[in-house]
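The following record pairs a protein chain with its ligand, nicotinamide-adenine-dinucleotide.
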Amino acid sequence: MNKLLLHRHVACAGFGSTIKNMITAPEGRLAGLKQKIESREARIGIVGMGYVGLPLALLYSSQRFQVTGFDIEPRKVATLNSGGSYIVRILPSEIQEAQKAGFRATSDYAEIEQMDAVIICVPTPLNEYHEPDLSYITETVKSIAPHLRKDHLIVLESTTYPGTTEEVVVPLLEAGNKHGLKVAHAPGEAGVYVAFSPEREDPGNETVARHDIPKVMGGCNAESTELAATLYGSIFHRVVPVSSPAVAEMTKLLENIYRCVNIALVNELKQLCMKMGIDINEVIDAAKTKPFGFQAFYPGPGLGGHCIPIDPFYLSWKAQQFDFRTRFIELAGEINTAMPHFVLEQLTSGLNEQRKALKGSKVLVLGVAYKRDIDDLRESPSLTIIELLREKGAVVAYNDPYFPTVGRGRHYDLNMTNTPLDNLGQYDAAVIVTDHSDYDYKAIVEQSQLVVDTRNATKGINSPKIVRC
Ligand SMILES: NC(=O)c1ccc[n+]([C@@H]2O[C@H](COP(=O)([O-])OP(=O)(O)OC[C@H]3O[C@@H](n4cnc5c(N)ncnc54)[C@H](O)[C@@H]3O)[C@@H](O)[C@H]2O)c1
């Protein structure tokens, strides 16, 4: 029997602890790399200095590893090397602290040769046909391949469909390296060690420290899994080895699909509850008192962020290869993407009650970030709502303490500037799309003519001016 299977789901407790007894004690070179990691002599390269890669780099630096961050954006490399930060929740002082431990950034892939372990955290969006766009991964892997060394450990963290590591990453690594190196596949085989370990970052979540989020990993062979477990076990409190990269890839997708489907469920039930005169939020609060079998999800204006609106469709796409339809994913996608339209309907009928048309009305959108208290607007429902409002002839402004301007992205071109909250009475309606904690909701309701609340942010405030949806 495969030794790794015997030890599947091993939870290795102890911060910085050695991952012991997972599989047979490794020999020679494998033991050398393990020892280098455990003694903090291993050099770690992290590719993609974004929302996932940069915090990870800081976490390794804080545990005395020498970290090099790779990014193709010269602006990010220059900012980091000058001790600055471009992510609001990461302070420049944290970058400077990491620099003292040897952290620096570069765009030069030749430096990969000096690394012992390389972790890839590049974007995995959908293309215009709603299909996986793996170009960031393939470009990264092609850039790494010429600089591979025997015994390199390469870990992919970008969320993707099951099979990516073994079907896409491994062949590119093997084809692109100049020494004819092979990826270790068979048990006990040496070569380049490759694994997948999904990122489980929850931006803005202050309740769980990153090193307390268990880290799942699956390697191309047992030794690769063990090395990856050693690498992550040095900074995460708990590692969860699984039997293959595909299992680890699917684990991440299951987690995100679970959220996507449950959010769609409450979004649909919210619409029914509104017709029945029942407050869905009160229902959820009551249901979540059940100590088993129920987890609370909350309705909202639609999905946002780089994960939940995108990742499930990576699996739908892959499923087609197996002549299989992922109906839950499709239905959830249908319901969730319709939510911005539902918000517009509610706003239109709220204005109608006040004998106003949406066309020509002045509308203030509160919050463009995709969720509370973060500076990330990727796939944010606010962007869709602003575009829909403009299409209908409304005069739109926005306020968001995290975004002085909103320019152009992959799917939008808004060219807007943040509006101060000093004269709310001038707007025909304020639409709360993101419930930032900095907002004074009582004052917003008092000063506005009409408030459309998509997040239950005005809970406890009684006013006929509020439309809750
Ligand atoms: N943001 C999250 O909350 C989150 C959570 C879990 C998983 N993920 C996953 O992690 C991955 C990364 O997401 P992110 O939010 O950090 O993305 P991001 O856009 O914030 O960062 C990606 C970085 O990669 C860089 N990059 C792109 N191509 C590159 C290349 N060829 N070489 C070097 N650098 C390159 C970009 O310049 C950017 O700085 C995605 O697959 C995402 O689905 C994200």
